[in-house]
Write a structure and sequence with these properties.
heterodimer; A: 298 residues; alpha/beta; Rossmann fold; three-stranded antiparallel beta sheet; 9 helices; 9 strands; globular; disordered C terminus; B: 289 residues; mainly alpha; 78% helix; 0% strand; ABC transporter permease (chain B)
């Protein structure tokens, strides 16, 4: 997410009128979405909005589900699940290289473990690790395959707040290095803003909002623009923020459009809500301000 | 030991509350009384058997136990020595062990094979599981008359009887283990694109291993049970035959030697399975210590 992907980079994911139904109920209802190569998209939505269904469709895990519509996704997809999902009977290295068919698989596995800060633990069993460490192994398992598309289903939802902050930093570093297209499902608005190039809100099986995040690299809650974007996303999620002033409005108003500029980058045929403030396309104007508050390494 | 351990624990807290004497006067009324069974007694598992053995020896020495009903421990030991010196015990043991091992191996192989067929495919389950459940409802030993008609009274009948007894627990527990494999792991295998063979090797078999080993423990027990029965029905050799022969001559001491041998065989084989279990399942024992 260090750089916004160029408008012309090819689409890694192209979804066109996707429908998925369970027992007659349309969970995905004509969904349109495009994710470009190297783009980091966060998918927000309330429970039951179809986030996981979409992710499972992209991961080709929806075998017996009724549906129709166009879905183009690359062959090399990796999934990070909410639980680390390590095979308990395999040592860490064997978990990382599970199913990896390459002559230098072991070497790459070691390198991937080192990347997530677990060098030297190759022979450990999963039960010996903390939750955060297990999720790091799961990240290593996903990235060792150099996927074109990385799907993550609330990968940090089960972690404590401190570990989650560290994992955000790690995920940003890793994605900046490997540059897969990322679709991160989350219900945490701050997580979405902290990580993504673009935040998509899913509601009743359709895209309800599609907002690019134009905040400077070290994004910190409370920074200018951040609060604005946060409130708008929360509004789309049906959270009513009538209570005034929690998010330092004066600050946010001053930079009203610095963080948020809705345009059509990569979105499907722009949904009305996705372009609600079409005039603002200002790039990050106060990077110094944001950086002063840095505490998470990018 | 277990009795005064909690007493010692209560003293410091009680004296801090005021008055060491009071603590000594009614130590067990102090707060924080332990409700669990407490710390284990060292070598506690020997205690019961040792007491039983002592009663047996004392009763025999005092002449309270009729030696025709239950000979003294030293008589049994001397008889065992004689049988070993004559070579009879080893011969019988070897014959019995061969039957048990053959039956065990073929039963385990069959149970494992059927469990895999029925655990890995729905068609296999439809074909295999029903008949096995029916077989399970019939006690294996009730099949002996039929097996004698089919196979005669030779070794084949004995091995088949043992194998049938072993087959059921291995099948049931392995099949259970296979079915209990978390669907999340199946999804994972799909997302990392494991092939069918790799999936079976890396996910299914290790996942079903705990179930299989549990089945093995039951299987070993049923193997010895079936062995004891077939050797007393129609045999001319083996530990069971030795005991049956001893019965006709009223040699209680020989019968006891046979029982001790069966007991040792059971203990050793169960210990072996547990050893394998500890090795093979080390991945989940690391935290248990």
């Amino acid at each position: 997410m260090a750089s916004h992907p160029g408008r012309l980079s090819p689409a890694a994911v192209r979804i066109d009128g996707l429908v998925r139904s369970f027992a007659g109920r349309r969970v995905l209802d004509g969904l349109e979405l495009t994710v470009r190569d190297g783009e980091f998209v966060a998918l927000l939505g309330r429970s039951g909005s179809g986030k996981s269904t979409l992710l499972r469709a992209l991961a080709r895990l929806d075998h017996d589900v009724d549906g129709e519509g166009g879905l183009t996704a690359p062959e090399d997809v990796s999934v990070v699940f909410q639980d680390a999902r390590l095979l308990p009977w395999k040592r860490l290295l064997d978990n990382v290289v599970l199913g990896l068919r390459a002559p230098d698989a072991e070497e790459r596995g070691r390198a991937a473990l080192a990347e997530v800060g677990l060098a030297g633990r190759e022979r450990a069993w999963p039960v010996e690790l903390s939750g955060g460490e297990q999720q790091r192994v799961s990240l290593a398992r996903s990235l060792v395959r150099e996927p074109r598309l990385l799907l993550a289903d609330e990968p940090f939802g089960a972690l404590d707040a401190l570990t989650r902050i560290r994992m955000h930093a790690l995920l940003r570093t890793l994605c900046a290095r490997h540059r897969p297209a990322v679709l991160l499902v989350t219900h945490d608005v701050d997580e979405a803003i902290a990580l993504a190039d673009r935040v998509v809100v899913l509601d009743r099986g359709r895209i309800a909002a599609d907002l690019p995040v134009r905040l400077p690299a070290p994004r910190r809650a409370g920074g200018p623009g951040h609060a604005r974007l946060r409130d708008r996303l929360l509004a789309h999620l049906g959270v009513d923020l009538d209570e005034p002033g929690i998010e330092a409005d004066a600050d946010a108003d001053a930079d009203a459009d610095t963080g948020v500029g809705a345009d059509d980058t990569g979105a499907g045929p722009g949904r009305e809500s996705g372009r609600e403030s079409g005039h603002g396309s200002g790039a990050a104007s106060t990077p110094a301000h944001d950086r002063a508050a840095e505490e998470i390494p990018a | 030991m277990s009795v005064d351990a909690p007493v010692r624990r209560t003293v410091p807290s009680a004296s801090r509350a005021g008055g060491g004497n009071a603590a000594k006067a009614r130590p067990r009324r102090a707060a924080g009384r332990r409700l669990g069974p407490g710390r284990p007694v060292p070598y506690g598992w020997v205690l019961g058997p040792a007491l039983l053995f002592a009663l047996w020896a004392a009763g025999a020495a005092a002449g309270l136990i009729d030696p025709r009903a239950l000979p003294a421990p030293w008589t049994v030991a001397a008889t065992a020595g004689d049988l070993i010196a004559e070579g009879r015990l080893q011969d019988h043991l070897l014959t019995s062990a061969r039957r048990a091992v053959l039956g065990l191996l073929s039963g385990v192989a069959g149970g494992l094979l059927f469990a895999l067929v029925s655990g890995l495919s729905r068609v296999g389950e439809a074909l295999v599981d029903g008949p096995v459940q029916i077989k399970r409802a019939i006690p294996s030993l009730a099949l002996i008359p039929l097996l004698i008609l089919w196979f005669g009274i030779g070794e084949t009948m004995k091995v088949v009887t043992i194998a049938l007894g072993v087959f059921v627990p291995v099948y049931i527990h392995t099949h259970n283990g296979l079915r209990a494999i978390d669907n999340r792991y199946v999804e994972l295998a799909e997302t990392v694109r494991l092939g069918r063979a790799a999936f079976v090797r890396q996910v299914v078999l290790p996942g079903a291993l705990p179930g299989f080993l549990l089945g093995m423990r039951f299987a070993v027990t049923s193997a010895w049970l079936a062995l004891a029965v077939v050797e007393q029905v129609n045999a001319t050799s083996g530990i069971g035959y030795m005991m049956e022969l001893a019965r006709t001559y009223g040699q209680t001491d020989v019968i006891l030697v046979g029982l001790v041998v069966y007991g040792l065989l059971g203990l050793v084989s169960d210990g072996l399975v547990r050893l394998v279990e500890r090795r093979a399942l080390s991945w989940r024992r690391t935290l248990a210590g």
